[in-house]
Amino acid sequence: MNGELVIDVSGLNKHFGPKHVVRDVSLSVRKGEIFGFLGPNGSGKTTTIRMLCGLLLPDTGSGRCLGFDVIRQSDEIKRRTGYMTQKFSFYDDLTIRENLDFVARMYAMDSRVARVTRALDHLGLLTRANQLAGELSGGWKQRLALAACMLHEPQLLLLDEPTAGVDPKARREFWQELHALAAQGITVLVSTHYMDEAERCHRLGYIAYGELLASGTPAELVEHSGLQTRVLSGAGEAQIGAIAALPGVDQAVPFGTVLRVSGHNGALLDESLSTYAAERGLHVQTDAPKLEDVFIQLMSHAQDNIRT
Question: pTM for the complete prediction?
């Protein structure tokens, strides 16, 4: 990574009718960086991504993407960006090779056959080149979609929940490929719901109800949250309500066979939990907060953007 900003936007807003879908979002992403976009469904991630790649014009706001103005030069941005949508959008009754050739024709690429073959080889698709896209598993469909994104050699990849419904092995291989691309200087902005994927990003932004609530490295987000976490062993899920109501407790979440309990006032948290645990023969242990703890806390303070 270097200091060159590939995405540098401020004050982006988008309404659909009375609903304020994206609210004053400002974002900067450096060249060769993998920036993760997290947030619940309907939070505005997809709308923001579409504004960045020129598919939607913001109502207000300004900035540049790949050096081009996001308002006046959206066509230039689209030519240099690879966008992978949530939904598989290729033709089921065409083969992998035929789908990629179709994309190459859409971009009016020269040396189409060579480009398609190179993409097939790079993503391990050559042996399946003549297989119908409709017959592919989720992991192979993902590879096809990424190959199509990379055909025109974009400088920026915008990936909208690309690994949803894909098995863990395929997800790991996909992320290895993303890091290889980032090492080549390609910038990646990827939205995800998976905490293990979030931890693989260089930096993260958390968006809820249209507002970017926090951004930074995974370690910075945990540190700046101010949360302190305790692990309570021996408690059942039926006790979550009572534990969540204790002084100093901001959240109580089941995690396997234990409860993860977090709050901002460590002394008060310890006092409440030690008394509660002693009375019921439970065990309390200190643990570092996780990204998931931080994002649950952020979400609990977010305000629904159905307001106008």
Answer: 0.87
